[in-house]
């Protein structure tokens, strides 16, 4: 897939509101009318964001002060939710996705800081092992709907490996993925799963532990720990 240049004008955009019930805050997320995959909110991101909220409902300090990295953030729903729940979050994506991602961070900045959280957006292209971000230590890595084209699978796994190799404390990874019906998407997911299971223990989070209204048999939620 080519890395397309992205730009936006304010009249291309429309807001979507996402409630974070556990802290009574509402995120405002700008999407584009038309554009690449990083311009809309994907269902897998809602499932992951709402799962974080579900855990915080049981353990209010679950994300407080945690250093969190999100890969392939898109519009930022997952990372911004984590930041509003008190985490220090670095949201990352391709360079062309950053303007809209940063707009969404700015839009929600005061809510995030009122909860003690923090959010910043940086470029991180999967497989770029020279990135300074890979030298930082994170407690948690989040990713939603990032397994969807073949060329990205090895670089994505390489980034997950690097993040786990440079730290003393291995970060836990939470990942959601929509399992699409097409043969090519099934093959891609199976290839990713097989490769990632070589180096990570994989735990499937059952639907009954997820948010009651934001879960789906089509969207898998996994917790990964480095072997
Ligand atoms: C299907 S979208 C999911 C976006 C967001 N996580 C969500 O669920 O709404 C996949 C995201 O991965 C990003 N992406 C694709 N290839 C990438 C790469 N090689 N390096 C970094 N990010 C990439 C895209 O720009 C996009 O934001």
TrEMBL record:
Tree of life domain: Eukaryota
Protein name from the UniProt record: Uncharacterized protein
Source organism (scientific name): Pectinophora gossypiella (Cotton pink bollworm)
PANTHER family for this protein: HEPATOCELLULAR CARCINOMA-ASSOCIATED ANTIGEN, PROTEIN N-LYSINE METHYLTRANSFERASE METTL21D
SUPFAM superfamilies named among the record's database cross-references: S-adenosyl-L-methionine-dependent methyltransferases
A Pfam match: Methyltransf_16
GO cellular component labels: cytosol; protein-containing complex
């Amino acid at each position: 897939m080519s890395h397309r240049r992205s730009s936006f004008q304010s009249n291309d955009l429309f807001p979507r509101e996402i409630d974070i019930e556990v802290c009574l805050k509402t995120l405002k997320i700008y999407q584009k009318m038309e554009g690449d995959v990083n311009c809309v909110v994907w269902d897998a991101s809602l499932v992951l964001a709402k799962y974080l909220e579900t855990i915080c409902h049981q353990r209010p300090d679950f994300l407080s002060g945690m250093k969190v990295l999100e890969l392939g953030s898109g519009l930022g729903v997952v990372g911004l939710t984590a930041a509003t729940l008190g985490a220090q979050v670095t949201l990352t994506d391709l360079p062309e996705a950053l303007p809209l991602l940063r707009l969404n961070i700015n839009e929600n900045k005061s809510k995030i800081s009122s909860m003690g959280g923090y959010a910043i957006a940086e470029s991180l292209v999967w497989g770029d092992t020279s990135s300074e971000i890979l030298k930082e230590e994170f407690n948690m890595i989040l990713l939603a709907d990032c397994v969807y084209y073949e060329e990205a699978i090895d670089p994505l796994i390489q980034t997950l490996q690097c993040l786990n190799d440079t730290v003393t404390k291995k970060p836990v990874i939470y990942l959601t993925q929509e399992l699409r019906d097409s043969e090519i998407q099934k093959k891609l997911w199976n290839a990713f799963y097989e490769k990632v299971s070589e180096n990570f223990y994989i735990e499937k989070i059952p639907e009954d532990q997820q948010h009651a209204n934001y879960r789906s048999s089509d969207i898998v939620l996994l917790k990964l720990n480095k072997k």
